[in-house]
Amino acid sequence: MAIRHLKTARSAEARAEDDAKTRAVVEATLADIEARGDAAVHDLAVKFDGYDRTSYRLSDAEIQSIIAKVSDRDMADIKFAQEQVRNFAQAQRDSMLDIEVEPMPGVILGHKNIPVQSVGCYVPGGKFPMVASAHMSVATATVAKVPRIIACTPPFKGEPNPAVIAAMHLGGAHEIYVLGGIQAVGAMAIGTETIEPVHMLVGPGNAFVAEAKRQLFGRVGIDLFAGPTETMVIADEVGADAELCATDLLGQAEHGYNSPAVLLTNSEKLAHGTAQEIDRLLQILPTADTARTSWEDYGEIIICDTYEEMLQVADDIASEHVQVMTDRDDWFLEHMTCYGALFLGARTNVSNGDKVIGTNHTLPTKKAGRYTGGLWVGKYLKTHSYQKITTDEAAAEIGAYGSRLCMLEGFVGHAEQCNVRVRRYGGINVPYGEGAPYKDAAE
Length: 443
Description:
Layout: E1 4-7, H1 12-36, H2 38-49, H3 60-67, H4 72-94, E2 99-104, E3 107-115, E4 118-122, H5 131-143, E5 148-153, H6 162-171, E6 175-178, H7 181-190, E7 200-202, H8 207-216, E8 221-222, E9 231-235, H9 242-253, E10 261-265, H10 268-281, H11 288-298, E11 299-303, H12 307-317, E12 321-325, H13 329-335, E13 341-344, H14 350-355, E14 381-389, H15 392-409, H16 412-426, H17 439-442
Helix pairs in contact: 1-2, 1-7, 1-8, 2-7, 4-5, 4-6, 5-6, 7-8, 9-10, 9-11, 15-16
């Protein structure tokens, strides 16, 4: 039997139409921000967030007042989660070393890992206050020692969410703004009269935020394209049952109305059982209105005959989150190549990765896992090389090779940069505009 679908999602054509509409809205909105600055940001904040302020940056006094509303228990949980994220980010940072080598006498080569000098962190929160996103973006930037970290989050039910503001502040944000959506991303990247633009944007968001980052890429750096949440469950009858699969699919489908959720299995029984269990859970899930729409429009159940077929389909879809619950979880870890993050075994789940376990939850979507991993401390670092020649002999020897190779390509001006060193430090009179002689010829 071939790979087959028990349930399919909206067509690629329909999704492309949605993307085109989103692109047009984002392009017009960014142009407005560029043209009108703070006035445009204010108008957009009032229109989309229903939030009217003279300045959208929170003062230090406001931050402390807002944080005071967080209960001691909630604050302890926030600090625990942030500690896990910081610890893993620090371990990653410690693995990235500056290097310096001397490949031949008198030639020094090296590289330095230098933090991006300013970063804008977007923390979603209009529908659900994404406290964890502050850890993932702000705290990780702090571990990377980014000198200027600004953070934006939309108001939640008409006011700044205390837990999100607390996480941003504890994470190390230097400036905090209560702004959401395109206006937040645009203001951070383009800049306004009161907001200095940043060098890089990071953080997840809805389709409009992801598209804004895409259009701004090049003007600023971005971490990756992290749009609406995607999840895939790879399961067999040994590793999981219908309740686990359905719970894990709906747990991510509740993120938004366009969050793809895919079950990939080699069991007809598990496929049908999961479909039935999803129907049952949607009767009792408080967020069912969102999860149901997402599942109906973007949910898929794919049945394969073999594990090799499951691997092939999984790598083709390249889902953001891939939860593996089979009798060979480590086999998938060894062989999968395209995904955002893996969650191995029934004891593990995507929510742990989203909120507390320590790995970063800002991950590639829309097949971007084929060419990039997720946000991590290394995304905030730029690896810059340097070179130094310390002896006359090395200057003359490298210069001679460089001279001839430049002439091979027809770059006479390049060759003369080398030749002047060969003449000065090697004592060889190379005719102007010619390649340096071979060593034996010079002798």
